[in-house]
Amino acid sequence: MIVKNLWRRKTRTLLTILGIAVGVAAVVALSAFGEGFATGFESIFSSSDADLIVGQKDAIMLLMSSVDASIQNELRSIPGVEQVAGTVIGVVQMPEAPYFIVMGEDPRSFTIAHYRIIEGGPITTRRQILIGKSTAVNFKKKPGDAFRINEGIYRVAGIYETGVAMEDGGAVMRLDDAQNAFNQRNKVNYFSIKLKDKSRIDDVKAYIESRWEKLAATRSGESTTQSESINMYRSFGWFIGIFAVLIGGLGMMNTSLMSVFERTREIGVLRAVGWGKLRVMSLILGETLWTALLGGVVGILLGVGLTELAKLSPAVSSMLSGVFTPNMFFQAMATAILLGLAGGAYPAWRASRLDPVEAMRYESGAAGAHRIQMTWLSRLFSSNSLRNLWRRPLRTIITVTGIGIGVGFIVAMMAITAGFIVAFNQIAGSGQVDLLAEEANVSDLSLSEIDDRTAARIQNLPEVASISRIILGFSSAPGVPYFFIFGLDLNEDYINRYKVREGRMLARPREMIVGRFAANGLKKGVGDTLRIAGSSYVIVGIYENGSVYEDAGATISLKDAQDLFNKPKKFSLLGIKLQDQYRDQADLVVSRIEDEFPEIKVAKSTEFIEGLQDMKSTYAILNALIVITMIVGGVVMMNAMLMSVFERTQEIGVLRALGWRRSQVIWMILGESLALSLISSILGAGIGIGLNRLLLLEPTFGVWMTASYTPQMFYQVIILALVLGGAGGLYPAWRAANLRPIEALRYE
Asked: pTM for this structure?
């Protein structure tokens, strides 16, 4: 009987299944990409036969670690150590793949065996590389072909396969070639150590950490700051996807509730012939559970399909290949079933509470509609569209809430992205510099490295008044997983933006000033000591610059930062202040500097953030989330409007019999749909603002979630909601307009 009831309204059932399926697909796909990203990074650092990994202490990720390569012989001489291999990791921005991972390995080390060659041969000379199986397909390369990485040309010696998506979508070159290519001369990101006797692993680990206070040795699978950071990506997909599922769940409640309204007389008959309340509840809950179950299955298949489809893109496959786990599918199905229970609970309870006599008197369509008493709230609206919506206030509230949550999520993400841009522009465009430069072709700002010699040559250009060398690094501090550290020269202009409210400015090595947010979070004050990556710094001042990314971090001298992040005579950013007569010609100066120094990328300080690859990737993710939300919201809207058409079939038949044209009926239904969207956008704006306020309360990363709102943002959201309403109401409006008056009047 349950299946038969669902099949009586095939369109409505299919739309409800689709609404749930899209939400579940979002959970599956986003969770798969989050799991793939996390698993990929974990596999890179644990897939060799190494017993210990040695990297920079408190580095958020080994990708950001830097270790002096000269200690390799000392590590090898430790009793119990059999082999030591250094590795350099580079992330390159390629036209086909914005995040292309290149590993630098010694061809004679034990770690090179991890790259199983399936075509061609091993690296035998300099300027040769191995490319992954996916890279060979995506870039259409084979052994013997030339392969360009940054400004260097390398010859493909062979093609390998490891089974790790990030590695198979990347490349491997000689360690010395990688050190030159990524400005890591005499440096490695980490060392892999193989022991003669694994029972001595704790002794060797303790010796390394006592001998080198800035290094940390970790065993394979051991929890570290890196693994904690990577696990955030695992939860990110689930957190995002749950919004899509929530919207679909409210759509299911709407459908179930309207099914109860539509079948009031039928339920009255069942109650009259002896059906108990529990049996009626079981009927309605059974229908919602079956719908949820089908939606979950379709959603899983759709999510897997979308993930596999996305992996065909080189930009995705090299960095975000999806990884599926049984737990992921279990969570998706459990979520769908829980949504079925939640979505059907109230409609089932309402159906079981119907009085048999009153239910049998109930009439649908126009006649029933005329008996609905207008409430005080409905009288507030003079518009026919709003009045029609308020005839079923519960349905309207559920629909508006579902779509409003989706709109609110979009508002929250847009505001956080805008907040990041505003905060960074406060740093970049504070007046101390006119231009900012980073290393060309880097996919992450923290990986940028500019040489001191390049800075000196730029300083000598006639258009340049002064320069400021800036190091931007990340570390971890007690209770703070992401701790921004800026390194500045005390004699250069950029330091003048710091407003020290307590204590004094930096004056000597191993001193630090911290932002107000950081001081509060770390519970530190002037005179306290803060230990980072094996180095201790005395806090001599607390500043408030007004930028969350500075005020939640700390600043040390340029020399101390170069030592801390192992960037001797290098820095992350170069701030350039122009001569007064050249400030109106900033674009021309940018072009000249980039032509003369192709190794760097320059932009006006107020436009710098927009050109970063990180921001381009953020916008791409944001747009994808907006599309998912729009699809789910559109299905919910279409479902609600279709149910309105079904319910008012007789009424529409009367209107058509009285002379209403098809176009008038279409505009009536579309007007209601657009009115729903407009109300949803207003509610969604409030939900988005509230969600961002809740995120600010999160103790670990909430401070970074500062939102910024602009009138343009709300205009965009309203337009998106109206487009959603128009798309969702189009088919129901067409269906209503094509109802034949005679058949519509006979409808019950």
From this structure: 0.65
